[in-house]
Amino acid sequence: MFILAALLLPVLSLKAEDGGSYAGYTPYSVFGIGELMTPGTAYNKTMGGVGIASRNARFINILNPAAVTARDSLSFMSDFSIYETNKILRQDGRVSANNLFNINNFIISFPLFYSKPADVSMMLGIKPYSSTGYSYGYYETNPTTIATVGNVAHSYSGLGSLYQAFATVGVDLFKKVSVGAEFTHYFGNIKKTYTETLSDPAAVGLTKTNEMQLNANSARFGLQYEQPIGDKLRIGVGAVYGLDARLGGRLINTTTSGIEKKDTVQIGGASSRLYLAGEAGVGLSVVYGPKFRAEIDFVRSDWTNTGFSSVSGFAVNGAAGPIFTTGVSQSLRAGVEYIPNPTDIRYYYKLIAYRAGVYYTKEYFGVSGNEIYSRGITLGATLPVFRWNNGLTFGMEIGQRGSLKNSMVRETYVGFSLGVNLFDIWFQQPRYE
Question: Does the residue 73 lie in any domain?
């Protein structure tokens, strides 16, 4: 259990001068491709991360490719969001804190053409997929080693991110059924470093660096159906299915102990087949007029045979074997939205969209046989700006990951997000008399 404690020890606050590009911080990101980022725009995040069944013409929804058709037929839409996260990490009486600010996504959406019986729309964007960000260390306690070479300090650090660039096309059939397809390109770099420092000036220390340059291609497919019941009530269902993505690129291993040695391994070859797991999800929505909507989503992703537990640079092993192992990730999310009076011309606060949500997630990895869970609540609101559906979305998330059992790390976090959704009428054909 000492190895587990050393690996996840949060003594370690990440320093600003460490530099690099990363989208999140957690000691659990030492494994595989790091922490998987919660998908969705600020609109999705303020409702607990739901969106598989959501058809809301006021906002861009990226959680289901079929949702791109939920729009005004003449509109051009864009969405940009940023977030800030504050974490407190605890383990065996130790406490550490971290905060981070970063960009979440940039997306544009527009119609391609409208004609009976099918209307076609498109969406282009970029968003984070995973993040590696950690820094920790410990001192050697073996008396024989200390007597031979003096004090020995072990330190580990990692940073980097994987991103998704995507293009989505959706078709609206008969105003009730929508289907969509999305092509996704994954890309990014992750760098992990181990340093052994010796107090004896005559002894030579050691530095090992694994630098991964990664890429992959995949596709997702979506379906939505919405059934009106009476004048105001609508019931919607949605489903998404994402394909596995074979990871490619190269792994550059550098070892320095007086002399630098470097070798490059191609990722995706016969000896190192790695996969990003696909996903399957379903959702249900209940909408009452323009004032109220409630949604619930369930998403499952099987990482069991993706290969990260055994490939150098991704795996974390101890004397007894792999410390981290992949498993099945599952997530249950629910959210609600309420607008007091969307057409009010007297009181501004009645035009604001108020939201709340909850989520419960089993992570894609386990630690020494212990499953890791995340849970949290979200709150938010969209303030309309000028005319049409322009708005500023403010969100807050309060949650917890992991536990203090078996010398693991418990993360308690509070996050804030800001989304800017722009809406304009572009596709008009002027007429003159």
Answer: yes
The continuous run of DSSP H or E covering 147 comes out as helix 143-149
- Please tell me the distance from the alpha carbon of residue 406 to that of residue 237, in angstroms, as a whole number: 41
Residues in a beta bridge with 424: 76
Helix (H, G, I), strand (E, B), or coil: what is residue 79? strand
Q: How far is CA 237 from the centre of its chain?
A: 23
Q: Is 230 exposed, middle or buried (0-12, 13-18, 19+ CB in 10 A)?
A: exposed
Mean pLDDT by 10 residues, the chain (433 residues): 40 36 76 91 94 93 95 86 92 86 91 78 94 86 75 89 96 89 96 86 83 95 95 95 94 86 80 88 96 97 92 81 89 97 89 96 93 96 86 96 90 95 69 54
Cα–Cα distances (Å) from 114 to 111, 226, 237, in that order, read 8, 19, 24
35: domain CATH number is: 2.40.160.60
Phi, psi of 413 (to 5 degrees): -135, 150
Separation of alpha carbons 133 and 157, rounded Å: 8
Owning domain of residue 52: 2-425
Round to whole Å and give the CA distance between 7 and 408: 10
Question: What is the C-alpha to C-alpha distance for residues 197 and 148, in angstroms, rounded to an integer?
Answer: 14
- What 3-state class would DSSP assign to 64? coil
At a CB cut-off of 8 Å and minimum separation 6, what does 167 contact? 122, 123, 124, 182, 183
Count of C-beta atoms within a 10 Å radius of residue 298 = 15
Q: Is the dihedral of CA 67, 68, 74, 78 positive or negative?
A: positive
pLDDT at 24: 67
Whole-model pTM: value is: 0.88
Confirm if 255 and 309 have CB atoms less than 8 A apart: no
Structure token digits, residue 51: 């969106």
Domain count, the chain: 1
* pLDDT score recorded for residue 11: 34
Q: Can you give the length of the chain in residues?
A: 433
In a domain, 430, yes or no: no
Q: Pick left, alpha or beta for residue 13 (phi over 0 → left; psi -120 to 50 → alpha; otherwise beta).
A: beta
Q: Is residue 94 part of a domain?
A: yes
